[in-house]
Amino acid sequence: MTTTSTGLLVAVAVAVLVSGCGALEPRLPEAQPAIPDQWPLPPSTTATPVTPAAATDAAGRVVADVGWRDFFVDPKLEELVARALVNNRDLRVSVANVERARQLYRIQRADRVPSVDAAGAMVRQGGDGRPTTETFTADLAVTAFELDLFGRVHNLSQAALQDYLAQEETRRSAQLSLIAEVANVYLTLAADRDQMRLAGETLRTRDEAYAITQKRHEFGAVSSLDVYQSRTQVETARADLARYAGQVAQDVNALNLLVGGPVEAELLPAGFDPNVTGLDALPAGMPSEALLRRPDVLSAEHRLRAANASIGAARAAFFPSITLTGTVGSASDELSGLFGGGTNTWSFVPRVNIPIFEGGRLRANLGVARADRDIALADYEGAIQRGFREVADALALTSTLAEQRQALEQLVDAAGKAEEIARVRYEAGRDSYLTRLEAQRTLYVAEQALITTRLSEQANRITLYKVLGGGWTEGPR
Prior knowledge:
- By secondary structure, the protein is an alpha+beta fold.
- The chain has a single domain (22-113, 148-319, 375-467), classed as Outer membrane efflux proteins (OEP) (Up-down Bundle), CATH 1.20.1600.
- Helix content is 59%, strand content 11%.
- A hairpin with a 2-residue loop joins strand 1 and strand 2.
- Helix 4 (89-109) runs antiparallel to helix 5 (152-218) and helix 5 (152-218) packs antiparallel against helix 6.
- The chain is elongated.
């Protein structure tokens, strides 16, 4: 290799070494979301001091590290979640967006190193009264490689990297939302099936009572008012049965959509199981820093970093840029002598571009970059604030829903005993049918409310797990 070609390669190597020097990216602004250090809890909740920064359960496990297979203990639900993660179309879009962002980052990162191309050509020239000549060339070329003296290329690469990382966190957030949605629809289906079963049993009981009331009316033991009051109870239960049957069908359709295909009947819940999750209760005194592990908060942080890096690239555009183009090769009039002695060629074309008058374009680009950074900062702070509210709401409902469920369990027990006493007294002729009717209504409404509250309690537990950033990691089978 000639001295000239060696000098060209040295120049390229020096260009690579100085690439990225003098970066003009500003310091990342500090977020000020203005949230308390601890969650606001209802007066009935006793806060428990928590020393670690991450949210942990009573067993000491970090919530964000607990896989969804460890969180759910229902094997049917686990199978449906696994299918949804493979087949759900919305999640596929999120995965494809991550891959797209990764490839865009690779494209941008490629500008930080020279691109070396090999080329060969044959040129035939001639004309009137001129002999025809042939020239053969073979070259290795570096074309328009920018010396990154002020960090423009580096900052653009960093912005693309942060966009890629933000898209990955967005995918995690979508996966977490999908897991929670599948679980909630599964629980809703189970609760609606229990409601339908309760309505069916109530309808059968009231049908029997209605038949007995009609017989007693025929013998003159009760008035026609009792007959019609009994019939209203029957038709109410019949309407509820039809309503819950429709809700069950809608729940199955929703589950099929989330899973990405029809779900076999054996994988559907037969009834509501209060022991669906396997995570211990979370302490009330966990610090608010636990929010920083949420995927949506991490995504907003990466977008802020990308916007901040774009400011550095916009600032670097104000300074001169140097691009290098060089070739090393061989040229000959004959193809057979292309690589023979005395055929070496080279060229070196540095170019300096100095911005003088851009009509305000560069300042406008910098202003846009700064505005994008301010927007990203506000979005980041907003993500933290929204997360704080979601966790605070879920924590506030944890104790109140448990108290509500316990009260309704006592109510159902008391209402059941009252209904039995009212039935006996009515059959003995000591009370009117209206008393028995009111006892039946109270029991039926209490049983419906208990099913609804149990669903709300479990759904809130899943919500709390979701808003703390857990569930996106799949544990072992």
